[in-house]
Specification:
It contains 3 helices and 6 strands, in the order H-E-E-E-H-E-H-E-E. By secondary structure, the chain is α+β, with helices and mostly antiparallel strands. The strands form 2 sheets. Strands 1-2-3 form a 3-stranded antiparallel β-sheet. A 3-stranded antiparallel β-sheet has the order 4-6-5, covered by helices on one side.
Length: 136
Amino acid sequence: LSAELAWRMLAMETGHWALRGYGRWIAEEKATGLSVGMIGLFNPEGWLEIEIGWDLFNGFEGRGFATEAALAARGYAYGTLGLKTVMSLVKPPNTASARVAERLGCVLEGTFRHERHGPMNVWRHPAPAALKGGAA
């Protein structure tokens, strides 16, 4: 990103934490300490509801980072925040993210049309009671 766009992204992410009390984290590779992406809870104005989202940086796709971090985010959503349901939004051509949702045990529930992002598939995560231990 350009410096201007990076600043706007940082302001949006930190503002989300300030306004909602939760947000996305920077995930890092344990072995190297490199940042691999942003994963966590996301619910900006105009969103359908609280989402577990994952955005990996180039070169870190297909290595399990999204699945591992999304499981941690779901544990936080259910265990710490006490949420009863969460979803993930995936743009229809993004088959890699759809596979992550499937690995997380999500069920394709329908479509949500966002005013800027267009149609996105809604993947419903299993409820806490349906998961072993109730949170992961």
